[in-house]
Protein: Uroporphyrinogen decarboxylase
Organism: Eschrichtius robustus
Amino acid sequence: MEANECGPQGFPELKNDTFLRAAWGEETDYTPVWCMRQAGRYLPEFRETRAAQDFFSTCRSPETCCELTLQPLHRFPLDAAIIFSDILVVPQALGMEVTMVPGKGPSFPEPLREERDLQRLRDPTTVASELGYVFQAITLTRQRLAGRVPLIGFAGAPWTLMTYMVEGGGSSTMAQAKRWLYQRPQASHQLLRILTDALVPYLVGQVAAGAQALQLFESHAGHLGPQLFSKFALPYIRDVAKRVKAGLQEAGLAPVPMIIFAKDGHFALEELAQAGYEVVGLDWTVAPEKARDRVGKTVTLQGNLDPCALYASEEEIGRLVQQMLNDFGPQRYIANLGHGLYPDMDPEHVGAFVDAVHKHSRLLRQN
């Protein structure tokens, strides 16, 4: 099925909208929960499905992406699905070569080294047409979900994408990417603008294809201090939200809630809460009550159990969840981990986490 043959109107009716209601700040009967990287290597069935092909080939197969997206929902009563894809499909669509090296992670054989390397990048307005396979995966998954829970689309934020493109992969310091910010501020802004121009139609396209919420991952926020963040990350985070919302309206599409997750960006919580997103995701280094005080009543919070808490016993997970729910309070809250699930985690413990959120949040509302 072509992505444009079936608009949102043609999709099965949504049966569980708890996640969307919480995202919009409406009252919910219990706290909705999903997990970053819920479609991941911790699931044996995921490893089995993925074994056959290389990582980015998997991303380019709508059928496989759909299957991987749905796997955790066959096991756990999660309140949202998130499409299986990768943030690096955007640099790829801009013409950069990216490979996934087993045991090492993403690698760019020819990273951006000089200002003139920006000329190698494709026109950002063509990126969405390169990423039709993501839109097809979203449409297929939305159909197969049969209205069970909402489907989340996502992308990496400009600064985080820039770090990969300049570093050529992961890095513990981001020194090369930060060197650009200090030595080539103009070129850095040019690159961040290119990325923003690519992300906006890509995210609008995800909604057109059937995504019911969007999350922007600023995974490398923590490498920037407050000054660099407010200069090179925040303006583009804001711009993405503003332009995506305008783009949805122009396309005649209903608005969807948007989530910003800036990992280790606790120094910018107030700014992120006013950046145009309905939901602010928190990592596990932030105390929920303090975060709530700082962001005020206008946004929903999402998070933020330490993923490593899932190594604890199921009883302990229950206790930690109870504490977390007490700290966040019952409304304007979506439970999640403070980062993605790790490959060596026990699926049973993920199930214990999900069940504990549902159970304790219902009890919390009765009292």
